[in-house]
Structures are given as structure tokens and as C-alpha cells.
Amino acid sequence: MKIKSQKDFFSGLMFTVIGASFAYGSMSYNIGTGARMGPGYFPLLLGVVLALLGAAILFKSFVVETPDGEPVGAFAWKPLVFIIAGNLLFGVLLGGLPAFGLPAMGLIAAIFGTTIVCSMAGDEFNFKETVVLSAILSVMSYAAFILLLKLQFPVWPTFISG
Amino acid sequence: MELFDNLALGFGVAFTFQNLIYAFIGCLLGTLIGVLPGIGPVATIAMLLPATYALPPIAALIMLAGIYYGAQYGGSTTAILVNLPGESSSVVTVIDGYQMARKGRAGPALAAAGLGSFFAGCVGTLILAAFAVPLTEVAFKFGPAEYFSLMILGLIGAVVLASGSLLKAVAMIVLGLLLGLVGTDVNSGVARFSFDIPELTDGIGFIVIAMGVFGYGEIITNLAQPEDQREVFLGKVTGLFPTKEDFKNMTPAVLRGTAIGCILGILPGGGALLAAFAAYTIEKKTKLRPGEVPFGQGNIRGVAAPESANNAGAQTSFIPLLTLGIPPNAVMALMVGAMTIHNIQPGPQVMTSNPELFWGLIASMWIGNLMLVILNLPLIGMWIKLLTVPYRWLFPAIVLFCAIGVYSTNNNTFDIWLVGAFGVVGYIWAKLSVEPAPLLLGFILGPMMEENLRRALLLSRGDWSVFVTRGLSASLLAVAAVMLVVVLLPAVKSKREEAFVEE
Q1: Among residues A95, B237, B434, B474, which one has the fewest Cβ atoms lying within 10 Å of its Cβ?
Q2: Residues B314-345 pLDDT 10s
Q3: How many CB atoms lie within 10 A of CB A160?
Q4: Which of residues 50-89 of B touch A (CB under 8 A)?
Q5: Residue pLDDT, tens place only, B398-441
Q6: Nearest CB neighbour to B168, from listed A30, A57, A91
Q7: Residue of A66, A68, A77, A118 best to disrupt the B interface, most CBs of B under 10 A
């Protein structure tokens, strides 16, 4: 047995595992019968279908020839890590992490944090330029979201605004 | 003529000074926010929904409809200029629209999208006005079995028309359906797959999935490419308006797109997304005129057709909402929310109980479309200025606006952790060449499908044959089956040819 398409192999594997987990998870709810469907009925059905589809894709990956083996290729760790980290930092700074005793720092701090961390995902990173960009985005966001749309955001750190 | 009486009533309502102002504000706000990458109409309307509490119901709905069209227009602008679908129905606009922008033809692309949308909007409004009354009567013939089959048809249609592997697309739909089930089951009150996380009992937000997979996933994929291959803006912008040749190419495409959009928009679950996909596929299947740019490399028909189709589809997708009470997409679901805030129950009874609102809304849609053309064509130059912003400034801003948009829909940070997770998943899907668009459609339809399956089987006492013994339901399923067979045939053929070559 040789994998003929890496992409198909891993996506098939993913669908099978997710489908099986959903099917397994739905067993903990009442399944019921067709005429009286319980909360587990439809997810169990879909989970099984998804697992079968995944299995079919897996099967295909061993059988159908592809010219280059369709390799998945290397992961781009740098953009992946920095973009996701920037996003998570936004949440941490904006809302704080009460579980770890981190206070909410508010929107402006979150904008600076996110913009700076995300910028590191690119090839060229210029700290000064990024700070200017953050400042511009802060002013724009403040005007658009707080003044114009009146969204309920904590703007400043809680220890300043109280 | 009753139709004209109705439309006259509608225009009478929509043409008051107050309602015109709200339509204008809606269009302007919608365009402004829609242009921001990563924030499409769903996020925009969700954000502005609270702002309409204080307005009279008709003004509120007119403004929201304006935001919808404005944001959708903005969405296609984003698709063309920034290579990000502002919303799911602009996914196919990205393919050729962005290529046109790269070749310095962003102006004609934007104009094609705008003019096509306007034309489609006019036709869609007429269709909506003409068919709303008879279709309300058909709606009463639909039982749960028919609804279920209709959704199957919609989903199969989306898969058939999507690019890439059919198996993977079906799997993504099923995965979308499953994700749509996360949260509290309306019938039993059981919180499913919520892992005891309180935020998950309300289900996963549509915006969270859309922004994670499309927004973050795309940015990471873009950044991962070496600099010279990266999708950045190249070339100069020359000529804002389409040439004569462009008009010749795009006119039939606009007509076809409008027709497809009007038909598919009526299908619940179809709407703008399915219409755009279908229109693009059909354009791709038609023969290229001599000297025309191939699809995928910046063909103007690849912009005009899906943009007309999604606008027509967006208009006619009000039909299932107003006649059947089914929101066919996420924006319509929010419109349901807006109506309920103002004590209006969407469904067949709106037309008789609130004729001013019903026809006023329809008339305002046309006015909104007109305003958008007037507002946007002169402003195209301004949008093109966006081209000069380098990507290294743009992507942090996109991430930021995605994060703000996600946070503002529910005002909780949990959604931000979730959107991060979907960003990672979206990147993995891109690496595995799995098309994410069908997932979104399944996600929206998941709970509705379950509910109708439940009701259909309850009525038939658990007998699955009800789906083929009822005439309407059986014919809907038959159409779905035919679509599958048709698309499978050439695939089978090409596979056979491959095998032949290898021997």
C-alpha cells in the first residue's frame, strides 16, 4: 500500500476522525427512533455519513494515481503562529483573563498589541512603521466603532477608567 | 393591475423623506463597512441591529436592507481589490475580479459588478413583487418533507457547482451541518457538543467560522507564499469604465447571471451564494469569444455574472423569507431578528397584515440599489486608492477588523479564541485543498434540516419513504439526483482517460 495522494489521505483521515467523534459524542444523547427523533439522532446519522465519506476519500488516496503524489507541503509556521497569536492577544488585552488575574487593558492597548504581533508575520518588520500603523488604526477604530456605532467596548484599561 | 397598485403603495411608503434618508444612511454605512476586508454584511447588520431599536419598524427594515446591499457591494469591492471575499457570495468574484485588478483593470471590474448588480436588483425586485403573492399560496402546499428535499437539492446544487473534488465538497457540507448542530437542541433543550462551555450552548457563530476560515486562513496562506508569488497588487490602474468590448462581453453574462440568480434565489438555502457559484460555472462552460481572456485570469464575465446573480439571488431570497418564513442565509436570519424586535412575525401573513411594510420594503430595495450605483460609480476612484496600500499594512488591519467584528457580535472574548481555532483549521484546509464554501452553507442549514427531518418523520411515523412518495418532494429529489449524475459523468470520463493514458 502506497499513498498516492497525500492531500486526500490526510483530508480523508480528518473527515473520518471528525465524523467518528461526532457519532461517538451523539451516543451520549438520547437517540430515539425515526418517528421520535432524540437530540442524538441527526448528529449520529451525519457523523456516520461523514466517517464513511472520509473513508471513501482515504480509499481514493490509495487507489487513484496522481502525477506528483499531491504532497501537503511544509507548514508556514511563522505567519500561522503570529497571525493567530495576534488574534488571541486581542482577546486577552481587550477582555483580560480573570482566571489568571490579568486585568482588561481595553481596546486601544489591544489594537497596538494585535497590530504589532501580526506585523511580525510578514517578511519585513519595521517597528516604528508598525507603531504608526497601530496609532492610525486606533484612531480609526475609535471613531468608527465607539463614536459612530456606539459599540460597547472597554476602551481604556480597567485600572484607569475604573 | 394589482401588481402596480401594490408597487405604488410601496413606493408611496418608501419615497417619504424620512425613509429615503434612512435608505441613504443604510447604503452609505453598508458600503463603508462592507469595504473593510473581513467585515461583510452579516457582521455589519449584526453590529447595527441594536441601533435600529429606536426607529419605526419600516424605517428600521429599510435601513437594514440598505446596509445589506451596501455591504454586499462593499463585499465585492473587497473581493476585487483585496482578494478576500467580503462575504460568502463574493467567493467566486475573487477569482476573476482580483486577477483583473492585478492587471490594472480594477475599475472596469468594479463598474461591471456595480452595473450588473443594479440591473439584477431591478429585475429581482420586479420578480419579488410579481411572484410574492402566488408563491405564498404554493408555500402552503409545502410540508416538512418538501422542505427537507428542497434543502437537499440546494446543498447538492452547491456541491455540484463548486470546484474541486466532489467527495470532499460533500464531506465539507456534512461537516458544516454537524457544526450547525452544536448548541442547544430546540426540541429537547439538550446542549449538544458544547463540552460544558456556556458560550457554546448558543452554538458557534456564523461570523466566527466565516472570518476564521476565510479571513485568517487566507491571510496565512497568502503570507506563506514566497514574495514574488504573493497575491499583491501589481500594475497600474488605467480606465475606470469598461470598454465597448467589455460591455459586449458582460451584457449577456449579466442577463444570464440575473436569470440564474432569480431562479436559485427562490430556493431556500440557495440564495446569493448558490446563485453566484452557478452563474460562474455556467459562464465558464460557455465558449470564449476570440481574443477573450480565459477564466481565472481576469475575464470580466467572471465578475459580471456572479455579481448580478448574487444580487438577483439576494433579492429573490426575500421570497422564501417573506412567504415561507425560512431565512435562506445568515443575513436573512438577521432580518428575521430585526422583524421580531419590532413585533413582526415573518411568514405568509406579513403581506396581508402589514401591506405597507411588505411593499415598502420591496420598493426600498429598488431605491437602495439605485442609490448604490449613484453613490459608488463616482467613488470607484476612491476605492482604487486602496490599491496603493501595501499588503504589510493591510493584513494586520484585516486581522484587527476581523477580531473587532467577531468580538462585537456577542461582546465576549470566547468568540475570539474560537475564531483563532478556525483560522488554524482554515489554513489546514487550504493546505489539504479542501474547499471551505460548502461548509458555510451546510452550517446555516443544519438546524433547519434537522427540524424538518424530525417533523417529516414524525408525520410519517418514522417511514423514510415519505420523501419519495410525496410528489413535490420526490421531484425535488429527482432534480438533485439528475444534477449529481450529470456532474459525475464527465468526471468518470476524464478518470477513464487518465487510466487509459497510463496504460
Answers
A1: B474
A2: 788 777 777 766 666 666 767 777 777 777 77
A3: 9
A4: 51
A5: 788 888 878 877 778 888 899 899 999 989 998 888 877 778 77
A6: A57
A7: A118
Tell me if chain A has a CB within 8 Å of the CB of B229: no
Rounded to whole angstroms, how far apart are CA atoms B201 and B367?
A: 40
Q: Burial code of B339-355, b = ≥16 C-beta within 10 A, e = fewer? A: beeeebebbbebbeebe
Q: What is the DSSP letter of B294?
A: P
The per-residue pLDDT string of chain A (162 residues; one tens digit each, 9 = 90 and over) reads 678 888 889 999 999 999 999 999 988 888 888 788 888 889 999 999 999 999 999 998 888 877 777 787 788 888 888 889 888 988 888 888 877 777 888 888 889 989 989 888 887 788 888 899 899 889 988 887 777 767 777 888 877 765
B447 min Cα distance to partner chain A (Å):
10
For B459, nearest residue in chain A (alpha carbons):
A35
ipTM of the complex: 0.90
